[in-house]
Structure formats: structure tokens, C-alpha cells
Amino acid sequence: MFKLSTVLLSVILVTLFSLTFISATNDRYPKLGPEQLIQEIAKLYQELTGKSLLEDNIEEESDSFAPIPYEATTNLNVRSGPGTNYQVIKTIAPGTKCDYYGENSNGWFHLVCQGVGGSVWASSSYLRQVSGGSTGGGNTGSNAGQIAANFARSKVGGCYSQAQRMGNPCYDCSSLVYLAYKQAGKSFPTNTREYPGNTRDVTGQSLQVGDVLWKSGHVGMYVGNNQVVNAENPNSGIKIRDLDWYKRYIGFTKVYRAK
Predict the structure, then answer these.
(1) For the segment 54-76, what is each residue's pLDDT rounded down to a tens digit?
(2) Burial class of residue 35 (count of CB atoms within 10 Å of its CB; 0-12, 13-18, 19+)
(3) What's the predicted TM-score (pTM) here?
């Protein structure tokens, strides 16, 4: 959360009152709804402080544990939890690559597997460690971007969490991007501090579908049609925003693209 000085708080409250009064009493000015008022106040706050009120103010503290690559040794049911009493999410084929992030329970590994949306659990008895992980090969950059964008769009309206960030059931900003590109067989950083990682810096070029809009502590994904999907914060969840809105109220300093 942010802390406001008495002077800054006074300026914002006076501005809120003025905007409300003017829009209500003067036909020359457009009527401002609650969301528009919040946006105008956020713009003023950003101009005064250089910080955003509308972005996630929690600097990501997600674990940057390097994944360990495994593959299935047989047709394998991957489940919603660590045990056979949990729901089967999908049956993966022998040789399907999975990334293991170190969490386990009674011989069950918590994984992110190729072709499976979100994180799942599987018995370690039917997994073997390999080199390369689930991120080798994959699609070309432009095709991967479209696959990632489709995945990100499908999660709009979902929940934000850093404690349950791997699609079980929520995401934070960087895990949404990471798991979206996982569907396309691409390796993207698991938190914002690891960028650029295995990506290309295309800052200044025309945006393409799937481009990652980065700034310190936050990422979003350009999904085409001047729209951005991002896991914003615990209150907003996963949102799709107009690009102009995103630039104005959240912003980005770098653009990264799949290789």
C-alpha cells in the first residue's frame, strides 16, 4: 500500500471535490462517473509522485527457483492436487515435458506441463528427470505470440494471487505471461526481475500480438486490437485494458518478444 503526505492528500481531495462539482453543475464539461474520477485522480497522483495508484503496488516477491525438467514415462494422469482422490485434469502422453519447481507432497510433484493450462500434480513414480525441460523447440515467435495471447485472453476475469500464482487457480502478472508462453513451448521468465531472459528486446518497434510490456515490478501482454491483458492486482484480478488506458495508468518502459 502507499502512504500519502498530508499536503498531497489535501491536493487530491480538493481535486476530487472540484471535478465532481464541475461535472455536476456545468454543462460545458462531461459528466464524470466514479471510474473516470478515479482515473483522473490517479493521473494527478502519477504526475505528482511518478508512481501509479492503479497498478499492483506489491513488488513481486515470487520465488525465482529454477525449474527442473522432467518427462512422463507413461500415459500419466495429472491432477488438481497431490493424490489420486483429486480431479484428473488431463492424461499426458509418454515423453510430455514438465517443469518441477520444488514443491512436493508424499511423492507427488507440483508441475507445469506442456499442453496443460496452469499447474498440476503428478506422481513422481512416473516421471524422470531430463535435460532441456518443457520449453525447447516450440512455435515461431509470431505464432507463439498468438497462442500466448489466446491463453491470456481466456483468463480475463480470473483472480490475482502471488501465493497461488501458477494457475491454481490464480495468477500474478509474470506467471500469467510465463504460463501463456508455456502453451507455445517457449521459455519466459517466471518473475519480472528475470527479464529479458530468453526473449528479444523490441522496445520502440511496432507492437505485435504476444509482446510483453515490461516495467520494474509488472508485466502485461499486448493481445492485438489495441488491447492489453494483465494480472493487475488482488482487487482488480486479470483485466483486459485499452492500450491507451494501460499506457496512461500503468505504463511500461520495455517491450519483449518471443525469439
Answers:
(1) 444 444 444 445 567 889 999 99
(2) exposed
(3) 0.57
Cell representation of residue 49:
509522485
Q: Give dist(CA 248, CA 82) in Å, integer.
A: 43
Nearest-angstrom CA–CA distance, 17 and 32: 12
How many other CB atoms are found less than 10 A from the CB of residue 108? Answer: 19
H or E element that contains 108: strand 108-113
Per-residue CA distances from 3 to 19, 38, 45, 57 (Å): 23, 17, 12, 11
Question: CA 139, CA 182: separation in Å to the nearest integer?
Answer: 11
Pairing between β-strand 218-224 and β-strand 212-215 as defined by DSSP bridges: antiparallel
Closest CA to 71 of 124, 119, 120, 139: 124
Q: Phi, psi (5° rounding) for residue 237?
A: 70, -150
- CA 151 → CA 117, 128, 248, distances in Å? 8, 28, 25
Report the alpha-carbon distance of residue 233 to residue 52 in Å, rounded.
Answer: 12
Give the largest Cα separation in the chain, rounded. 72
pLDDT tens digit sequence for 175-198: 999 989 988 888 898 888 989 988
The residue written with cell numbers 519447481 in the block is 101
d(CA 199, CA 159): 26
- What is the gyration radius of the CA atoms in the chain, in angstroms? 21
Rounded CA-CA distance 97/78 in Å is: 12
Distances (CA, A) of 74 to 103, 123, 254: 22, 11, 42
SS3 198: coil
